[in-house]
Amino acid sequence: MGDDELAELRRKRMAQMQQQSIDQQVMQEDMERQKQADAQIQLILKQILEPDAKERLNTIKLTRPEFARGVEQQLVLLAQSGRLKQKITDAQLKELLKQLLPAKKEFNIKRKG
Question: Which 3-state string (H, E, C) describes 25-36?
Fold first, then answer.
């Protein structure tokens, strides 16, 4: 292996390390932006939900995070559009959740004999 080949390998390795550093920095910036967006959503939810409704939404988030995120987004959109006149109570949130959940199918199994 000559000096030229060694220098080329070093240059390639250095470029690779720089690219990894840039990628990591971009990823950290994305995570920071996501954290800020989540904090802003939580702040809005705190303003528009009664404490018991907020607790219910947090419980749903534990079991069905994607569904809860969708509900949160809809609530934030309602608040930002000015369609909410008062804080949402637990009963109102339950009604909203019933409307958003798909209807469950019931199965009746009958045995002969």
Answer: HHHHHHHHHHHH
